Amino acid sequence: MIPKVEVILGKVGTGVTEPLHGIIDNNHVIIKTFNNEESNRVLINEFVSHRMAKALSLPIPDGGICLIDKQTKIDESLCFQEERYGLGFYTKRLDKVTNIVSSPLLLSKYIANKDDFIKIILFDNLIYNKDRHKGNVLINIGKKGNNKLYIIDHTHVFNIGALWDKYQLKRMIDSEDYNSDEVMQYNEAVYNLLIEAITIDKDGILKLAENFKTILSKDFLQNLVRDIPDVWNIDEEEKTMLFNYLFYRVKNIENICNVIYNYIRNRSRRW
């Protein structure tokens, strides 16, 4: 059953998708609503990326599809348009968090899940996420030094963010966009911190890629795309092409690994 948003308390930050702070089952959550300013494509992007990240055991808050309806209590300070009622996407709010620190030494010394760093880089490249920055990499301050790094916000994925359609997805497949190092370029500020905090070798990246490939199977991706709500303005042709794009990226994950490794190696030479 789709969880219902009980209360919307207010806005969160100044993001273009106008995320909201709400409550579901007594848990504080961050919500991106139906018919938001960036279109329902961002809900699809979030839903697909989140399911993939969870399957890969990446550090991402719990979340999923949620419902806002006329029984949801809306804070009086908000101007909430009726067209935003419907199915949205939520993630649980993390408590005791800070943005990623600008010190590889501190990350290496105090973050418990350093093994996830290269997984995050590979995942971003797989889904063509060019928007990994210090605002969507969080550190959860845990007990007894069990500090954990989390990733949030996957609005701008699949190469062109919320602008994709079946024609653009086909164009990207035909252009073999897995050869691009744009993700590494755009996300370099954060990736530099992660890369300097760990040791990376090509065999390790390729072994990780094999694990990704096993988990993100054809059946998994077909079921994932099938579960996208139709009300998010996606028809069967677009679902098919989105599956084709995702499956094409997974099939070429070894090439993506080569792009990552070569970029890191060339970066070291520049330094």
TrEMBL record:
InterPro entries to which the protein is assigned, alphabetical: HipA_2
Query: Gene3D superfamilies from the entry?
Result: 1.10.1070.20
Q: Where is the HipA-like kinase domain?
A: 6-252
Listed name of the protein: HipA-like kinase domain-containing protein
Instruction: Write down the species.
Output: Fonticella tunisiensis
